[in-house]
Design a protein that fits this description.
The protein is α/β, with parallel strands linked by helices. It folds into 3 domains: 214 residues, FAD/NAD(P)-binding domain (3-Layer(bba) Sandwich); 105 residues, 3-Layer(bba) Sandwich (FAD/NAD(P)-binding domain), CATH 3.50.50.60; 114 residues, FAD/NAD-linked reductase, C-terminal dimerisation domain (Enolase-like, domain 1, 2-Layer Sandwich). The protein is built from 14 helices and 22 strands. The strands form 5 sheets. Strands 1, 2, 3, 4, 5, 6 and 16 form a 7-stranded mixed sheet that branches. Helix 1 packs parallel to helix 9, helix 3 packs antiparallel against helix 5 and helix 3 packs across helix 6.
């Protein structure tokens, strides 16, 4: 591009934001509300991964699958339904309506915001303070990159010969796969596996590692495996050499496992083997923005890149892969800029959930990390089968596990796998942020009957690690 010949067409803003995921729109509104001019650029659907192909649509599918699952268990609760049929067209329509409402809401919010210019197209850096999009050239002293990520497509044998699905293309499915093979036994793979098993598909999970969700403790992985296997999901672990090939109108997934046949034949395959950032087509080299070998933009503790005036927020910075970490990135940047605060990424405590049923709520360190830390530690584990609320609901799978520092009495980490685990974990998380001792919870009076009321019970059973 001949910048000199187009200098008269350059549009100047106080800030430019690339991407409308969880961080970008709120930051744009913050700038606009402060009387600053801001341009926000989106090349695809407004709202990013979360509202279009991530949290919102998948948790909508989880809800449909849960309702169907409970209906099938009607006899346990004192009722019966003679003919339970899953209408995938209606399931998809419900998902699309909820997801579409969220995406449309983000777009209307931005377009209706004073001082905010919305531009649709592919953004590309020309200089550290200059971005081209469509036939426009934009300049600003502050540029924020919020471009998210997408499913990683591994270079496995047969990948170009067989049609496959990702979490994004899954959103277009309005039918029930006869036999769904899911490559990847972590969060995305497990959620889709249980969803489609409950819808009625035969499901096989193929995982390269020796256990599911390898980042979690072994007892968590084993309990999750038992939960999904109890619903008829087949698990194939230690699949070291995965390959794809066409077979009988479907797809064969080749694997070498310690046990079981050398391949699984199904009708459809989903690849759920990780994510990569959407950074390769931004022209980051022209701005001098540094990335790591995976393409993630390198940022400091306040989310600034190596180039003054450029920040990276959300999944593309490798500092968190969740909606809540992306939104927290916005809060850090905005408070530091507008409130003269000094918030940092390192201040936050790791927390996330796995939305199988029952869900896994996680905060802080795993037991394995705690054991490796060299601290004197107290720990307790309590089965959900002894939690009255879980027993009353007929959902007794899982357990509560908490680790605390024996000297400071601070909570180091917890896993709550069971009914309400994704909500109850916040009781612990908030006390961790307050840097208060676990005895605050232990001495609290909670409401009966709830799952949270058992946290004091669990904490009363703390003992040194065996």
């Amino acid at each position: 591009m001949n910048t000199a010949s187009t200098v008269s067409h350059v549009k100047h803003f106080d800030a430019i934001i690339i991407g409308t995921g969880q961080a970008g729109p709120s930051l744009a509104a913050r700038f606009a509300g402060a009387g600053k001019t801001v341009a926000i650029i989106e090349r695809n659907k407004f709202g990013g991964t979360c509202v279009n192909t991530g949290c919102t649509p998948t948790k909508t599918l989880v809800a449909s699958a849960y309702a169907i699952h409970v209906a099938r268990r009607g006899a346990e609760y004192g009722f019966s339904l003679d003919d339970i049929r899953v209408d995938m067209t209606r399931v998809k329509a419900r998902k699309d309506a909820i997801s579409g409402r969220s995406s449309k809401g983000v777009e209307e919010w931005l377009r209706g915001t004073k001082n905010c210019t919305v531009i649709q197209g592919q953004a590309s850096f020309q200089l550290p303070n200059t971005v081209a999009v469509n036939d426009e050239v934009l300049q600003a002293d502050k540029i924020y990159i919020n471009v998210g990520g997408r499913a990683r497509i591994p270079d496995m044998p047969g990948i170009r010969d067989v049609p496959f699905l990702t979490n994004s293309s899954m959103m277009d499915i309005d039918f029930l796969p006869k036999h769904f093979i899911i490559v990847g036994g972590s969060y995305v793979g497990l959620e889709f596996a249980q969803i489609y098993r409950r819808f009625g598909s035969e499901v096989t999970i193929v995982e390269m590692g020796p256990r599911l969700i390898g980042r979690e403790d072994e007892d968590v992985s084993q309990a999750v495996r038992e939960i999904v296997e109890a619903e008829g999901i087949q698990i194939r672990l230690n699949a070291k050499c995965i390959s794809l090939s066409k077979r009988d109108g479907g797809v064969a997934v080749g694997l070498t496992c310690e046990e079981g046949p050398p391949e699984v034949v199904g009708t459809h395959v989903l690849l759920a083997v990780g994510r990569i950032p959407n950074t390769s087509d931004l022209g980051l080299d022209r701005a001098g923005v540094a990335t790591d070998h995976h393409g993630y933009i390198i940022v400091d503790d306040e989310l600034q890149t190596n180039v003054p005036g450029i920040w990276a927020l959300g999944d593309c910075n490798g500092r968190g892969a969740f909606t809540h970490t992306s939104y927290n990135d916005y809060e850090i940047v905005a408070d530091n800029l507008f409130n003269a605060d000094h918030r940092r990424v390192s201040d936050r405590i790791q927390a996330y959930a796995l939305y199988i049923d029952p869900p896994l709520g996680r905060c802080g360190m795993t037991e394995a990390e705690v054991r490796n830390s060299g601290r004197r530690v107290l720990a307790a584990k309590y089965p959900m089968s002894r939690v009255s609320r879980a027993y009353e609901k007929g959902e007794t799978q899982g357990f509560i596990k908490i680790c605390v520092d024996a000297e400071t009495k601070h909570i180091l980490g917890a896993a709550i796998l069971g009914v309400g685990g994704d909500e109850v974990v916040h009781v612990l998380l908030d006390v961790m942020y307050a840097k208060a001792p676990y005895t605050v919870i232990q001495r609290a009076m909670h409401i009966h009957p709830t799952v949270a009321e058992y946290l004091p019970v669990v904490l009363a059973k703390l003992e040194p690690f065996a």
